[in-house]
Design brief:
By secondary structure, the chain is an alpha+beta fold. The chain has four helices and nine strands; from the N terminus they run ββαβββββαααββ. Strands 1, 2, 3, 4, 5, 6 and 7 form a seven-stranded antiparallel β-sheet that branches. A two-stranded antiparallel sheet has the order 8-9. The termini are far apart.
Length: 204
């Protein structure tokens, strides 16, 4: 289980309304986020219980809204999320995924969805919602000053496994040494990260 953030290092973030600048007399902020899994004992207990059951780190964020603007616009997350509505009400427009298993640092960004949403879900206090990784969604306050808790469920992918294995290989002196000359000579000078073809173009 990972070490948890201490209270004096917690971040509080506020996000402007999406697609609009500040206007005199209009709310300058629509949503605020608090990383809460070390602030409230109940939230910490929930995050730790999910970690034990699902075998993954579970960050927990609180989101407060006081304006019906979709503060983040339509977006997707690179992990599954479990939403718990604590106060007020929010509308969730769910559009599904437009690419398989997207990652935040990926080779290609997924396209924005076209057409109507798959579902529109109204969350009231006490409701829960599961949003799969990669699903596009937009959220807006609909009643009161809503407060909801988001528990992130980061995936364990094959990429993570390879990164872990690469770290373990650093224990071997041979693999810490400079690359052998044959490998260094095979690298394309225009693209250092890609091995050059072993055959000239005429023979491929």
């Amino acid at each position: 289980m990972s070490k948890r953030t201490q209270p004096d290092t917690l971040r509080r973030e506020r996000h402007p309304a999406a697609g609009a600048g500040h206007r005199p007399g209009a709310p300058a902020r629509a949503t605020a986020r608090l990383i809460a899994d070390h602030v409230h004992p109940g939230v910490q207990a929930l995050a730790e219980a999910l970690e034990r059951h699902l075998r993954t780190d579970v960050p927990a964020n609180l989101y407060a809204s006081w304006h019906p603007t979709e503060a983040f616009g339509i977006h997707w997350d690179d992990h599954d999320t479990v939403i718990v509505q604590l106060e007020g009400a929010k509308r969730w427009n769910l559009c599904g995924a437009t690419g398989p298993d997207p990652l935040r640092l990926d080779v290609e960004a997924p396209e924005k969805p076209e057409g109507p949403s798959l579902a529109e879900v109204a969350l009231q206090a006490g409701d829960m919602l599961y949003v799969p990784r990669g699903w596009w969604h937009a959220v807006a306050a609909t009643q009161g000053r809503p407060l909801h808790l988001t528990c992130g469920l980061p995936p364990a992918t094959g990429h993570h496994l390879l990164v872990w294995l690469a770290g373990q290989l650093l224990h071997f002196p041979t693999l810490r040494a400079n690359a052998v000359s044959e490998f260094a000579a095979s690298l394309d000078a225009c693209d250092p990260g890609r091995p050059a073809p072993s055959l000239p173009p005429a023979h491929r």
